[in-house]
Structure formats: C-alpha cells, structure tokens
Design goal:
about 160 residues, alpha+beta, Aminopeptidase, 4 helices, binds coenzyme A
C-alpha cells in the first residue's frame, strides 16, 4: 500500500455500482441496487465505504478505488451491522476492521449502546474479524440462511457512548 491512503467516508450514490460488484462477489444472496440506494436515503442507516487513493489520483472522493463498505441500522440504543464486505483482492489488509471500527465510532456518537449482527456459522473470516472487535455470541438463529441453508450466530458487542 505504498503511496496510498485509505479513506473511510460516507457512501454516495456513485459508489453503488462498485459496492454491488463486491456484494455479488461476496454473497450467495446479495442485496439489490435498490437496497443500497435506500440505505443511502434513510437517516437510520449508516453506510460507509473504504476508498484507496493513490498518489497521482485526483484528490476527490470517488476518484480512488473502492475496497469495501459497511452498513448499519440504528434503532435508538441498539444497532445492527446489516452488511459488510471487502473486495476479495483487498482482504487481510485491515480494511474490514477499519470499516467496523469507523461505523462503531459513529454508532457510539449517536448514543448506541449495543451492536448486534448475524454471521454464518461457517464464515470463519468474518467470525475472526468480529471476535477481534469484542463481539460475543448471544444466540443462534436456526436455518436463518439459504443457498446453502445454515444457522446464523447472533453476536453482540456493548459500546461506550462516544
Ligand atoms: C469478513 C471480511 C469483511 C473481513 O475483511 P478484511 O478486510 O479481510 O478483514 P481485516 O483484514 O480487517 O481482518 C481483521 C481481523 O479479522 C480476522 N480475519 C479476517 N479475515 C480472516 C481470515 N480469512 N482468516 C482468519 N482470520 C481472519 C483476523 O483476526 C484479522 O486480523 P489480522 O489480519 O491482523 O490477523 C471479508 O473477509 C469479506 O468481505 N468476506 C466476504 C463478505 C462477508 O462474509 N461479510 C461478513 C458477513 S457477516
């Protein structure tokens, strides 16, 4: 990542095609373009992207390469991480962790105290990421996922008000 800067910023409509590309490459049941567009509009959704800007790129949001995104849904003092993914060629470089940290900070500033999420039991990469960010298992949703059918683990993290 020499001469490159990673910027975490709110998503914009022009990010949606690249977000969709990463989403479709990451999940068997991907969100639709409409779901992402709606997430941009609703105040209770926080939608952040990670953009890598290299030296020589014009220094404007959207001129770099989109590496990943995270979406959280805020419901008063609780929130849910609804979607998170990193482009396959940019994984294990800390991008997912930075996205999760950034959205958690934002949730804390909004007064959220508990963050929940569901994860496929077999998704070792995501589970390791969440474990590294102090999420702990608080439940199991049997047969929650399709394609293939699988249980979801329900994870929770308590956060301090920001
Ligand atoms: C889960 C995902 C977002 C992680 O993104 P990432 O940018 O690769 O994660 P990071 O590089 O920030 O990893 C942070 C930590 O998580 C853990 N981790 C991440 N990927 C891992 C893997 N494949 N194996 C083991 N641990 C892993 C490690 O502890 C890692 O820290 P380290 O690299 O210092 O050891 C990414 O793998 C992804 O997009 N997967 C497909 C979509 C998905 O499953 N989303 C989650 C749905 S619940």
């Amino acid at each position: 990542m020499s001469n490159a800067t990673l910027v975490i910023r709110p998503a914009e409509e022009y990010d949606v095609p690249e977000v969709l590309r990463i989403e479709r490459a990451s999940f068997a049941d991907p969100w639709s373009a409409d779901s992402f567009l709606t997430s941009l509009e609703l105040d209770r959704m926080r939608f952040l992207v990670a953009e890598e800007r290299r030296e020589g790129d014009a220094n404007q949001a959207g001129d770099g390469m989109l590496l990943g995104y995270v979406i959280a849904l805020v419901l008063a003092e609780e929130a849910e991480v609804a979607d998170i993914a990193v482009s396959s060629d940019a994984r294990r470089r800390g991008v997912g962790g930075l996205l999760l940290d950034a959205v958690t900070d934002e949730l804390a500033r909004r007064g959220v105290r508990s963050v929940y999420l569901e994860v496929r039991e077999s998704n070792t990469a995501a589970r390791a990421l969440y474990e590294s960010r102090a999420f702990r298992q608080v439940g199991r949703r049997r047969g929650y996922y399709q394609h293939p059918a699988e249980d979801a683990l329900l994870l929770k993290r308590e956060i301090e008000p920001g």
